[in-house]
Design brief:
The structure holds 2 protein chains of 2 kinds. Chain A has 2 domains: 73 residues, Ubiquitin-like (UB roll); 72 residues, DNA polymerase, domain 1. By secondary structure, chain A is an alpha+beta fold. In chain A, 38% of the residues lie in helices and 16% in strands. Chain B is α+β, with helices and mostly antiparallel strands. Chain B folds into 3 domains: 177 residues, Aldehyde oxidase/xanthine dehydrogenase, molybdopterin binding domain (Aldehyde Oxidoreductase, domain 4), CATH 3.30.365.10; 193 residues, Aldehyde Oxidoreductase, domain 3 (Alpha-Beta Complex); 331 residues, Aldehyde Oxidoreductase, domain 4 (2-Layer Sandwich), CATH 3.30.365.10. Helix content of chain B is 28%, strand content 24%. In chain B, the strands form 7 sheets. In chain B, strands 3-5-1-12-9-10-11 form a 7-stranded mixed sheet. Chain B has a 6-stranded mixed sheet with strand order 7-15-14-13-8-29. A 4-stranded mixed sheet of chain B has the order 18-26-27-28, sandwiched between helices. In chain B, α11 packs parallel to α19, α15 packs parallel to α16 and α18 crosses α19. Chain B is globular and about 90 Å long. Classes of the chains: A alpha+beta, B alpha+beta. The interface between A and B is large, with 55 and 57 residues.
Chain lengths: 157, 797
Amino acid sequence: MTSITLTVNGEPITATIPARLHLADFLRDHLGLTGTHLGCEHGVCGACTVRLDGAIVRGCLVLAVQADGCTVETIEGVSDSGEVADLQHAFAARNALQCGYCTPGMVLTAQDFLLHAPADADRAAIREHLSGNYCRCTGYEAIIDAVETTLNARRTP
Amino acid sequence: MKFSDPTRPDAQIGLARARPQARALAQGRGTFTSDITLPRMVHAAFLRSPYAHATITAIDLAPARTMPGVVAVLDGAAMADLCTPWVGVLTHLKGLKSAPQYPLAVGRVRWQGEPVAMVLATTRAQAEDAAEHIMVSYDPLPPVVDAAAALAPGAPLIHPELGDNLAFERHIDTGNTDAAFAAADHIIEADFTFARHTGVPLEPRAVLADWNEGAQRLTIHQGTQVPHMMQTIYARHLGLDESQIRVISPDVGGSFGIKIHVYPDEMAVVAASRLLRRPVRFVADRLESFVSDIHARDHTVHARLAIMNDGTITGFDIDDLTGIGPYSAYPRTSAVEANQVINLIGGPYRFAHYRARARVAFQTKAMMSQYRAVGHPIATSVTEGLIDRAASHLGIDPVTIRRRNLIPDDAYPCTSPSGMRFEALSHHACLDRLLTLMDYDALRAEQASLRQRGIMRGIGIASFIEITNPGAAFYGVGGARISAQDGATLRLDAAGRLIVQASVTEQGQGTTTILAQIAAEAMGVAFDHVRVMLGDTDVTPYGGGTWASRAAGIGGEATWQAARALCAQILTLAASILQETSGNLDISGGAVIDRASRAERITLAELARIAYFRPDTLPKGIQAELIATRHYVPREYPFAFTNGIQAAWLELDTETGFITLLKHWVVEDCGTVINPMLVDEQIRGGVVQGIGAALFEQCDYDAEGQMLNASMADYLVPMAGEMPDITIAHITTPTAESTIGAKGAGEAGTAAASAAIANAVNDALSPLAISLATIPLTPARILAALQTGTGRAGGRP
């Protein structure tokens, strides 16, 4: 067991955990933050995407002990801060989610795109950036639409 | 009722309403089974067979029992005392046979991934640790991997007591097929192969069972499409009364038919909860999902088409063989897909002579059964593949040959040679719309001009029919306890708001939303004033759940009928309060109104206040009844067939074998469209699953019966970067069976997408006279064909 101290969604957390516990399991099972989903646990599907010190990571490929001293933001955190409210609204309005299981990871990845999108970013760039996040329900087009809508709205002064 | 009139009062049907649940889901605040924890809950992990076929000679559970956190370790023998076995047969699939299947293997394993033993521990990690310490001795038996080899004389028997490995065989022989083929100007012949693939719902299968020894009740949270069906199954095999079992399906993270079957590991979890008198949760990990979820397809079809010089189709001759793993799935069976393949082949076209054989073979691979668009992609790919080959052979355009043979739009009702009854379809209207939508002639011109520059693009077209709104014909008539009818209960609460409880279920399709739209319109209340509850056997009416594209057409109609019944009850009460004749009253805008002047008389909130809190002010003998339930099942037709057509536009790189999808079009006729946005998203999602089958997805097995690509890294599914935008249009031919006239739309996309893609690839390859009939069309497969020239197209005169 290892003791870690980190900040999760702005809240200081200290926990004693097994060294083999991955970050997504820590968030879900120890902190009750079940918005971070597990789709494959081998780093492919993107459902467990969270932000670690500002960068998106696969929660299943980071050990919780590696997050010691770090800042973690989950879908619950960015929802409550209002950071992605426009994006989430666009997802709902465009039906860019069906079962909703991939959606938290998709929203965090899309927000990462929006934060760093070059001025000439287009649909193809959105598709490219989201290609590490699997969705089995929508066929992706509605998701691309929702991100594009948000991109255009944020660009409008 | 004219739902096409947008000026009708309280219009909701036809509006592109956003789903109210989307907000919570987008915040990660849904509740999936894998999110739920209960006090004293233990976690289950399974030890699975590493062999495709072997005798279990010994199991030693003792080392696992001493591992940290372990509460119990069970093997097949222990589990057989807790749960009776099941056999996946139905009486209307004559001759279908299968063997008893147990939650954990007893004596013999028959596929790699079959659960052999189970550990229950305080954490999942501890359960997995302990599972590694279970010692099982196997004596390997010869694997039976290939379906054709399984049926060959002398093949090792997977279930010796069944006598052979043939689970089911069915023949259709209509007209005089031999004479039709003898008289045909041309016979087009091809061998189609469809790989095994699987559904990969992003939330793996999950079940949390909680036996309460004091209450003698079992509460099961489960990601399932069919709560009442599961209630029946658990009662039957655990020796309980159905009333002792509550099945709750909360948010379900994708299903597509995968979460509609009885799985041995899930049965073991439920049985273990009863044994341990505490909650047990099992969430499959992705690696075990690949070898334990239901697989789909796995067909080889030898197909012949008889055709005349003018392009008129006269007959089909079909031989389908599919492999289903070692058991027929329970309780829906694994014979339904092959049965459906031969029912549907040729479905959009007019022809008289049809011979077909379907054979279903046992093999030592993971089980195969129903997945989205059961049988449809096979039937559509074979039919449309033959038609395109015929057009190419005759030198006529693929559109021309379809126009010549599609059943005329004024020919309905009619019956297909396989006995399918069509109420009203719109193939020609859909084709016309498609050609306009995609600007077919311009696209052909562009294709020709690009070919001059060595760019190989292809256009693929596929007409289809889809089975929706099934009554009892699928399962009930064969003895399965799967409800064909569904129910809805509508209740006006004291605040004047509406509660809908319905037996159809939601896995993200938007069931909740469309039922709210239907209830709101039928009642004359605001959409926001309707709350819908689904997926709980203690709460909803009894019903079949969501499968075979039936929730809108059947559950929606039940909701409509219940709303109209509640309206009548409310108007009776209002008439009494207002001292008016109920016939002079109506409900609109959340209030009882004067039917003639449309003036408000009393709001529903006020009426409910009086009914619940001041019934003393009502006239004597008036009892307010503010709840109504209705059920619905179509009786005129066994299925409501829908139809449509798809087109794919793609580019093929002959250097790499890679395919770039440029555009996809769908014209679909699902009758009355309740929510156009949700219907279109069902179609888009379905198309992309069909594209996955066409280009990427296959469960690779080696000769030993080992699945070689059982991880998300190795099993490819469509990603955002490679999918095209999909343009969708609708023709609307409502079914006359129901008031709403809605047919299903959940499987239309998957039904024809792989056929359209395959036809487009072959169209792109047509200058090289190469034609491929195996999906997925991987780059390796395409390059091999380019290099060897195999698969060269050709009919014979």
